[in-house]
Amino acid sequence: MMIKVFDVEVGWLTLEINGFRFCVSYLDDFKICMDYLLGIGKDNEYTYHWNIEARSITLDGEGTELKLSITKHIYEDDFLLNWWVDDGTPVSKVFNYNEFVRQYKQVMDDIGEEVYRRDFLMESEDEDE
User: What ranges in the chain are assigned the alpha helix state H?
Assistant: First the structure.
């Protein structure tokens, strides 16, 4: 598995990509950030202005920061992902875009919207009223 998301509880979750792990705080809406990074959703679909596009995000670990960026060519199936924590040495890896997105969507579906909102975003039912 290329991407895993687990230990979703009390405003934290663990993101693992290719064996690298980072604990993400609820201070960033993980799903919104990742959906943007991967171009998921009608408002975030890739629109190519050139032959190659890039996107990047940061995820807060409350005291540490994960920077993720991707680069994808319009006619290629693979994309380059860069992962670096704070000012450490970046790690780069090539993944198949469609397979990576499929796995990401599956792990988020397995977590479920209710668990994500309650246990990661720390939303209560009272806020909906």
Answer: 30-38, 97-111, 113-115
**Beta strand ranges found along the chain (DSSP E):** 3-9, 12-17, 20-25, 52-60, 65-73, 78-85, 91-96
85-126 pLDDT tens trace: 998 999 999 999 999 999 999 999 999 999 999 999 998 766
**Amino acid at residue number 126:** D
Q: What is the CA radius of gyration of the chain?
A: 15
Angstrom distance (rounded) from CA 31 to CA 63: 20
Q: What are phi and psi of 127, to 5 degrees?
A: -65, -25
Considering the entire predicted model, what is its pTM?
0.90
